[in-house]
Amino acid sequence: MAMRALRNAASGGFGKFILFGFLVLAAGGLVMMDVGGFFRGGVTKSDVARVGRDSVGLIEFDRNLRQTLRRIGLSPEDAYKMGYVSELLNNEIKSRLITKAADDTGLLISRAHVSNHIHTLIEPLIQGGQNPQDVLDQLLRAQGISEGQMIESVRRDTAKNLMAGAIATGFGVPSPFMAQDLLAFREEKRTVQYILLPESDIKDIAPPSDDQLMQLYEATRESYAISEMYDFQLVTVKTDTLKDTLQIGEDTLRQAYDENIDLYTHPERRTLEQAIVETEEGAKAIAAKVKAGKTSLKDAVQDITSNFNGYIEAQSFEKGGVLDSIREPVFEASAGDILGPLESPLGWHVIIVSKTESAHTQPFEEVKNKIRDELVESKLLDEQYNLANTVDDLLAGGASLEDVAQQVDVEITPLSTMNGFGQSPDGKDALKAYADDRAAFLDTGLTLEEGQTSPIFETKSGSFVALHLQKQTPKSYTPFEEVKTAIEKRWMADQRRAENTARVKALLEELRTGTRSFKDAAKSEGKALATLTDISRADTPKAPLTPAGLAALFEAQPDEPLSIPLKDGVAIARVLDVHLPESIAPQTEEARKDAENLDKALVKSTRTEALALYLESKRAQYGVRVNAALLERSYGAGPESY
User: Fold this and answer.
1) H or E segment to which residue 629 belongs
2) For residue 363, cis peptide bond before it (omega within 30 degrees of 0)
């Protein structure tokens, strides 16, 4: 059981969290830096970035990028268009900047702190009397790193977090007047007049020629791309009946008991409820109250010291866990005894001995079934690995899946056709039934060539499986004739939009120069002047107004003509009236909570900005170079993308 937990942890999510989670800076408080601020040049052809003398290589960055994108079902090309590639690279750069700053500051983390942190991380993996060091050693071997590397990783990560936290929290709380001004800003109301100019007004658009449509198809070809698709077979080694074949004899059980007798030998223990105070007089007063039987130890501490700080709830101790100065009277006492005052380096103790346990060894018959379960579990795991290795050996020797199935009990299950992100041709999740192992399936399967089978690997549920790539369909494009009608609609819509934009531009010029009034402009277009009264920033815009249009109206100056985007066109608008509330004191409980949340957001924003400014200064100090050309070649849509 312990071995399974360890192996699962080493190969599954939790073990990876233990060994790699602390390597990633918790960047929740870091804001995105402007990609436009990157320096160009000064980077080798194979590096996507440099931070001082440290390089971020393309191979390492690409591997981490693709693993991240597979989890969210996004292609590198789409991620590049949306700015995610730059964002992920920025996070890596920020992490390295903080690391270098912490190193330069001389921030040192004690070995004791690192040791305690590592113990906390591996504690959930420790089972039934295992030595923590043994668990750690096996975990390190499974991941292929040394204890020294792990210690250094934890130390550096802790230093980074301390550095970032110190910078972010070193700034004062924003003025309450700022929060009031922001509340007033948010509650601002405006009255707006507008002329609606939809694209549907544009009627006489000449239809495009086939040459024009083909040019548009070629220019937007990636929009009609059909991703490379994969047909996998899942090979599952059947181990269901193994447990029934395992027999553990009485002699084997007795031998395991004798060899591990220390696990079943328990030293003398005492369960102690304590009070520790600074003075002997205080301890005497507490003891007197408890011995009089009128109050509990906890209440006595409260009565004498006016707080509960000196009270410690009942805990069980071995002899070695009790301070030298009080050990002898504690272990000579009987259950129910009240001891004290007793002096130790911590202060003056009053102790209630709640329970005594004599040293004892659990008899064989008491633990026999537990030993049998553990031995069966361990042997079962070994047999499972042996069976998995047999399948691996057969495949490595050139055996087909059919040959393997004749010699070993395996189940072969075809998976749904999918792209490199686990999506089926109709956009559904092809790996929905294997959600826990999604990343492992994709990482393993995408390394295969057509007709190749992967080595056996263990899933998070403990199954032993392999992936066989049955068929790989190259990336292709929907033929022009199949999308010609859609392209024609797109071309016509583009032409309407262009003509409508020109119409709006001409009207705006006349309004701004005073050649026409709003009323005349509306009349010339056969439109009515419409009015929106008392709209606010917090409003959910109603059609035809859009969020972008609402934002533009609150950026505009009064009486200044402007165009605002609508769902299917444009409107020409002007602000007639602006109203800012003079008093924004919260009148309701909901409003008060809203104000409190705004205060918290301001504090967080200030600290985030402080850290961003600090990182910008370090950016200039160390020098940051980004290979924009390499990013474009690697992830920009085009024939060179991969």
Assistant:
1) helix 628-635
2) no
Please report the pLDDT score of residue 144 as a whole number: 63
- In the three-class reduction of DSSP (H, G, I as helix; E, B as strand; rest coil), residue 585 is classed as coil
599-600-605-610 Cα dihedral, nearest 10 degrees:
100
User: Would the pLDDT of 202 be above 70?
Assistant: yes
Report d(CA 218, CA 238) in Å as an integer: 51
Distance between CA 601 and CA 594 in Å, rounded?
10
Q: Tell which phi-psi region holds residue 451, choosing left (phi > 0), alpha (psi between -120 and 50) or beta.
A: left
Element (H, E) at 468: strand 464-473
The neighbour count for residue 400, using CB atoms within 10 Å, is: 13
**Which of 30-34, 193-197, 322-326, 479-483 has the lowest average pLDDT?**
30-34
> Which pLDDT score is estimated for 584?
65
CATH 3.40.190 fits 229-246+366-474, yes or no: no
Report how far apart the first and last C-alpha atoms of the chain are (Å, whole number): 44
Name, in order, each residue with C-beta under 8 angstroms of 627's C-beta and a sequence gap of 6 or more.
Answer: 43, 44, 45, 47, 48, 49
Tell me the two tokens of residue 582. Answer: 């003079």
Is the Cα torsion angle 587, 593, 598, 599 positive or negative in sign?
positive
Q: Which residue in 132, 116, 140 sits closest to 9, CA to CA?
A: 140
What pLDDT is stored for residue 179 in this prediction?
72
Separation of alpha carbons 34 and 43, rounded Å:
19
Least confident of 123-132, 154-163, 255-264, 401-410: 123-132
Measured in whole angstroms, the distance separating CA 436 from the mean position of its chain's CA atoms is 15
For the stretch 503-547, pLDDT in tens is 999 999 999 999 999 999 999 999 999 999 999 888 888 877 888
Give the helix/strand (H/E) hosting 471.
strand 464-473
pLDDT grade, residue 32 (50/70/90)?
very low
Class of domain 268-358: alpha beta
Fold of 2-172+618-635: Triger factor/SurA peptide-binding fold (1.10.4030)
Determine the residue type at 486: A
CA 389 to mean position of chain CA atoms:
34
Task: Give the CATH fold of the 188-225+480-579 domain.
Answer: Chitinase A; domain 3 (3.10.50)
Residue 19 has pLDDT above 70, yes or no: no
Contact between 510 and 521 under an 8 Å Cβ cutoff? The reply is yes
**Do 344 and 277 contact (CB within 8 A), yes or no?**
no
Nearest C-alpha neighbor of 242 from the set 404, 400, 464: 464
Integer CA distances (angstroms), 384 to 240, 378, 391, in order = 10, 10, 11
User: Hey, where are the domains in the chain?
Assistant: 2-172+618-635, 188-225+480-579, 229-246+366-474, 268-358
Burial of 568 (0-12, 13-18, 19+ CB in 10 A): middle
Check if the beta carbon of residue 419 is closer than 8 Å to that of residue 229: yes
Same fold, 2-172+618-635 and 229-246+366-474: no
Q: What is the mean pLDDT of residues 357-370?
A: 91
CA atoms of 615 and 594, how far apart (whole Å): 31
Q: Kindly give, in sequence order, each residue whose CB lies less than 8 Å from that of residue 466, ignoring residues fewer than 6 positions away.
A: 234, 235, 391, 395, 453, 454, 455, 456, 457
Pairwise CA distance, residues 555 & 444, whole Å: 51
